[in-house]
Amino acid sequence: MDQELFGKVDHYISEMLAPEDEVLKETIKSLDDENMPQISVTANQGKFLQVIARMCNAKRILELGTLAGYSTIWMARSLPESGKIVTVEFDPHHANVAKQNIEKAGLSDRVDIRVGKAMDIMLQLKEAKEEPFDLIFIDADKPPYATYFEMALTLSRSGTVIICDNVIREGKVLDEHSDDDRVVGVQRLNKMLASNENVTATILQTVGVKEYDGMAIAVVK
Ligand SMILES: C[S@@+](CC[C@H](N)C(=O)[O-])C[C@H]1O[C@@H](n2cnc3c(N)ncnc32)[C@H](O)[C@@H]1O
């Protein structure tokens, strides 16, 4: 793998098509300042999520895994004024940093940060019988990805797009005997996507400034 070339091309694309403004740069910086991991999506992936949100004319978005709000900000910027993104984060420190970044972005009216475990919050959303989401981005802990996906389906309608990040894990998904529970979690999801008759799905490999990985994209039938 030519990681150096992938990195250079990633910069080439992001400088042209996904330049970060001060708010996005500050959001990435807040991770270091607050001793949080640098595991946000890249600028190009943020822009990709924004493009997808526009493509499906998303007015209601659900995100699992907020961290500092970097991907949240990219997606929230695609929303109309009346739109809403519900983003779920179980670490209160992360949620608090995200809240500040989202305020700086002027998006507090469009972003609803829920602090809690992804599964618990999805159950609450289901019980509240809210309108289905147009786009769901799954980017929280990997072992329960298949369960998150099944639950996400109950918060969807025909046409809802569901994207799951980090489903290739540097190619480790090829190892049928992996004992890494994150690898096993995404392998379970990927197999389930192939057999689930309620969705049509594929996986895009992702290369660039971050490690080689992949994003699953599914649309609900
Ligand atoms: C990969 S980061 C999210 C990155 C973010 N989507 C971005 O691109 O800017 C994953 C986040 O999920 C959170 N998380 C982990 N397990 C969770 C769970 N069970 N429920 C909700 N959030 C969880 C972590 O604390 C972390 O902040």
Automatic annotation (TrEMBL):
MF-aspect GO terms: O-methyltransferase activity; S-adenosylmethionine-dependent methyltransferase activity
PANTHER family assigned: CAFFEOYL-COA O-METHYLTRANSFERASE 3-RELATED, O-METHYLTRANSFERASE-RELATED
Protein name: Methyltransferase
Annotated GO biological process: methylation
Species this chain originates from: Pedobacter ginsengisoli
InterPro entries linked: Cation-dep_OMT, SAM-dependent_MTases_sf, SAM_O-MeTrfase
Entry keyword annotation includes Cell membrane: no
Annotated Pfam families: Methyltransf_3 (PF01596)
Domain of life: Bacteria
The entry's keywords: Methyltransferase, S-adenosyl-L-methionine, Transferase
